[in-house]
């Protein structure tokens, strides 16, 4: 990879390679853009196949955070970090304290939090070395239920746009992934009267959803073929790709997963198929809204969270309107709105 060429293309400000042999730490911190404030974004721990995969992931995720934070009207820039290692085997106090020291050395330019492979317990060790960490237990805590709430509000906004009503009673939603966000979302949808089709790679999770929410269970691959109103990806990225896009029988795609489209060309393909796509970094912004309250120092309460979450349906409607008016994809419209907020003029 020609790193500086990629950094130019993706417009990153700073990338820090963190190496602490004694602690076994190999991490990368990417600060994408700080025009709106310090770069906030979680720390992912993953056993990447290659170092290049780790670099690509942190660059893509940190850029996404700039767009997400701008869209949520937060006084924050975008950043992200990755620790290279197996989260089931390589975690230790020493590792996370070493990571915390690197975060601290950036003097507040980057604020970390939990992400895939890390949890509030790990962040407790990070916090021993730096105050630039959020999402701690006893403060804003696990953001997943709030992310789910934001996605739920987003699905209602999509329904209102397409079907003329935000009431989702009897609307059929296919949820892919019943983890922290997916299971909470399934609960909210069920309570609102939606009918659920679900999948996960873990048997116990689908059994739980079947029992609690009367959900119809399908295999991990079948989820792309089911007749439904809404397909809600809540597992992995790049699920809208050349193998899946023609199979989808939904009218709306609205879920929590980051980077749902394999690349931008799939936004056009969805539009050609008359499928309304709720851009991922707009609909899944609830988690960062939750963490931002802790960072801002405002006393944390559900009332504040609920009020701030309203930006998700509002932004989605702006995106859909712009896409319709300009004849562009919803992904492009979201990018244009976000860039108008964080890019310096002139
Ligand atoms: P999680 O790891 O708790 O849940 C993911 C679930 O997906 C797991 O149950 C897993 O078994 C399942 N899964 C994995 N591969 C699958 C496959 N091929 N088919 C079906 N199911 C599969 O993660 P999470 O915290 O619930 O996050 C879900 C997604 O939302 C991730 O992409 C994450 O980046 C994104 N996201 C999460 C938050 C948050 O607050 N947690 C915020 C923004 C975005």
Tell me what the structure shows.
Pfam families: ELFV_dehydrog, ELFV_dehydrog_N. Its EC number is 1.4.1.9. This protein is 44% helix and 15% strand. Strand 7, helix 6 and strand 8 (195-199) form a beta-alpha-beta unit. The protein has 2 domains: 3-64 and 76-128, Leucine Dehydrogenase, chain A, domain 1 (Rossmann fold, 3-Layer(aba) Sandwich), CATH 3.40.50.10860; 143-283 and 315-338, Rossmann fold (3-Layer(aba) Sandwich), CATH 3.40.50. Helix 6 (180-191) runs parallel beside helix 7 (203-213), helix 10 (286-296) packs across helix 11 (302-309) and helix 12 crosses helix 13. It has helices spanning 3-10, 51-71, 93-105, 120-126, 144-163, 180-191, 203-213, 265-272, 280-283, 286-296, 302-309, 311-326, 330-342, and strands at residues 14-20, 25-33, 39-40, 43-46, 77-84, 110-111, 172-176, 195-199, 216-217, 230-233, 252-253, 276-277. By secondary structure, the protein is of the alpha/beta class. The two termini are 31 Å apart. Strands 1, 2, 3, 4, 5 and 6 form a 6-stranded mixed β-sheet that branches. The radius of gyration is 19 Å and the shape is globular. The protein binds nicotinamide-adenine-dinucleotide (NAD).
